[in-house]
Amino acid sequence: MNDLTPTREQRSAALEGMGCKRKRVEDIRFTQGKGNYVDDVKLPGMLHGDFVRSPHPHARVKKIDDSEALKVPGVLAVITAETLKTVNLAWMPTLAGDVQMVLADGKVLFQNQEVAFVVATDRYAADDGINKVIVEYEPLPPLVDPFKSMDADAPVLREDLVGKTTGAHGPRKHHNHIFEWTVGDKELTDAAFKKAEVTIKEMISYHRTHPSPLETCQCVCSFDKIKGELTIYGTFQAPHVIRTVVSLIAKLPEQKIHVIAPDIGGGFGNKVGAYPGYICAAVASIVTGKPVKWVEDRIENLTATSFARDYHMTTEIAATKDGKVTGLRVHVLADHGAFDACADPSKWPAGFFNIVTGSYDFPTAHLAVDGVYTNKAPGGVAYRCSFRVTEAAYCIERAMDILAQKLNMDPAELRLKNFIKPEQFPYHSALGWEYDSGDYHTAMRKMMETTGYAALRKEQAEKRAAFKRGETREIMGLGVSFFTEIVGAGPSKNCDILGIAMFDSCEIRLHPTGAGIARMGTKSQGQGHETTWAQIIATEIGIPADNIMVEEGNTDTAPYGLGTYGSRSTPVAGAAIAMAARKIKAKAQMIAAYKLEVHEDDLEFDIDGFRVKGLPEKFMSMKDICWAAYNSVPPGMEPGLEAVSYYDPPNMTYPFGAYLCVMDIDVDTGVYKVRRFYALDDCGTRINPMIIEGQVHGGLTEAFAIAMGQEIRYDEVGNVVTGSFMDFFMPTAVETPHWETDFTVTPSPHHPIGAKGVGESPNVGGVPAFSNAVNDAFSFLGATHIQMPHDFWRNWKAAKDLGAVA
Amino acid sequence: MAKTHVTMKVNGAEVEGLVEPRTLLVHFIRENLQMTGTHIGCETTHCGACTVDIDGMSVKSCTMFAVQAQGSDITTIEGMANADGTLSALQEGFRMMHGLQCGFCTPGMIMRAHRLLKENPSPSEQEIRMGISGNICRCTGYQNIVKAIQYAAAKINGVEFKEAAE
Predict the structure, then answer these.
(1) pLDDT, chain A, mean
(2) Is the complex ipTM higher than 0.90?
(3) Rounded to an integer, what distance in angstroms lies between the CA atom of residue A401 and that of residue A276?
(4) Is A174 part of a structural domain of the chain?
């Protein structure tokens, strides 16, 4: 060794592997405006399609007259349900086992529902055409309130289901009922409540909201009549699933469908589903023989494609008087809108809501979810969370605070008393999950120490006393939240989408010069996969991350995968990367053994190559092994160095975290100020701390938006009144609080690199932290539970209702 | 619809085109000039993804007709790199401080930050937050965008960039 020989630290750093704050590969093009998003795709002769939408929430469609529209210069076709019936596409299957109208077939069931699709030479002409389509409606009584959906005299929304007493998830109790889903031991839980010393019961609503990524949903469909091939560029979080769905419903051979998801401008769950725009653009391309682009505008995005939440959760906890929980009982009324288009794994009508026991050791629990139809847009996507996990976390975290209030206990102390203990992992929850790992007490205590929790409580007590003395009009709330997520869907034993197991995949091919390409079944929408996936490979096989190109989103080249949502990419695809890399490493070891003339058992991996044990000078770098793989492999071995892995996870992963929000509220105006927000996340092994921190910032900002005002709201007659960013709260840099981030590391024992996933944790844990802060602030004035969202007006209203404002 | 001839300067080059009077500037830039770095996020002037620089002002190009830009001097994200093709201070700042994720708001955000730093070369955090409040980002929570702009300000001013303590 001489001075020029790199040290082990230098060799390791040169790889930019796991744990490194590697700067993002994607940013070079994005900062120069050279990303390639769907609306940037321009094909020769491309046409534009746009929708005629219903102004009514519930009406019969008597007549559609397109004669004037077809006279508009540039308008080439108007597609209606009647057109779609000729190709059997007037209705499409949903991921939840329901069917959905692609275009209004006899009826409309929500405001802004798609009624006709106008195809024109450019987007302006298409809009002109829309204005000339005359639709005759006969308004019907709208059903807006989900609590009235199963009244005996409630209007029949889904005439296609009349007489069907069984749906995709079992018996239907009423013409507007979709499913009832029950989990847990009812008898045991009822018994626990009977003998409980203390119980609480509260109806906790999680309002309807929307993921609203900055880029809306869009596609370009191009049908080649000669080859019989359909190419679809689209904002797809799960491109392979889209290909299979299109093949099944359009009866096209799957090899003749090419789905390409280019750069995606944020997804947050909005881009998982299949929407009428995709079907109409594809049919329009088949009808016209030209490529057809469909781009939603923001109003369409907010009002038609995939809302989130809308869960009304009647929650009860049984406990001892010293604060030990003994039972949990939850009934959810789930408002699904006009069609059940939830994007959940097929067998899970309420997603993984049965994670609702949270981080606590409930000896027994029972959950029932009733899904109902209303005259609202379909959806129910997981807005930056795993399936219905934010609803579950909000439910239990709010309920634990309500219990603490009733017991006159500190909410943090109550949680510490009931946490699942480190030695209980793997932990089997009362509602059927096996939690992989966790150390909740350490995380909670670190949060309390770092934030000075005890001192903050003291300050709050002083401020409350001052408020009561009339010396201040400001109240202070501490919002504690401790969440356990369930992500990484998922094991084939319990997760599939339309029958396809929810594995994910990676194919790595190394080139002779010590470089390579990794192709994935996932699809980044901003998560930085091109950066982080290469880091895993760098650490696993010792090739610098800079030498690995990551490619996603092209179904012709990528191995089949189930896509990116529900924080599943790292738990599932991240594992596939490690497994594919290890296959390569095993072959590389055989090549190195042959070249170094030793037995492969005599070799050990050392950062970026293989070394003969005990003979440090005998070393072969991965770079040299790559060359040898194409030049002189051992006799009988195939040349080349590549591997593919399809990873079926043995279990979900269970990230967790401890959050604290410190909030001050002026009771006379309802104006709040987030003084401090601390987020401790444990996502297991950390691949890129810079990206993790960025994900946490973003998720907290979305949580802030949801808790403090972001709502899709309908008036009493079914008009959606939050159709633009004027009415739908979208925080800017001014409103958004400063975020403090922290972490502990509890690796997943079953994941090859111990990683659990992080992108959605901050939304899951953030919403209850904000809401608990508001509720905690008002609690000394007598409030038990104030419904979200907590905007200024509602805060003022709460103060007024509590008698704190004249 | 009858078309009107427009000429303007975009990223230093004279350009021209035939547009309908109702053609939005953002569509002229994206469709006619084929510069797709300027994005459309809301079409109602809220999100700022379409922000460009016109005659020394930040303008949301979804709320201006192309004909209104007749004779003006426009800079878009495609004109922001250094002359030698390297990333400019702002572009570098966004990358170094992880000021972007999906990249969709980034061009508008950089264009706004560019004008902000011309208006106020050494802005405080609050001035930056107020200065970019017409631009919505769904991914980053803004904290790293603020740092990115501080990084760029320091580089442009030739002083050392110090990250504020958490």
Answers:
(1) 97
(2) yes
(3) 42
(4) no
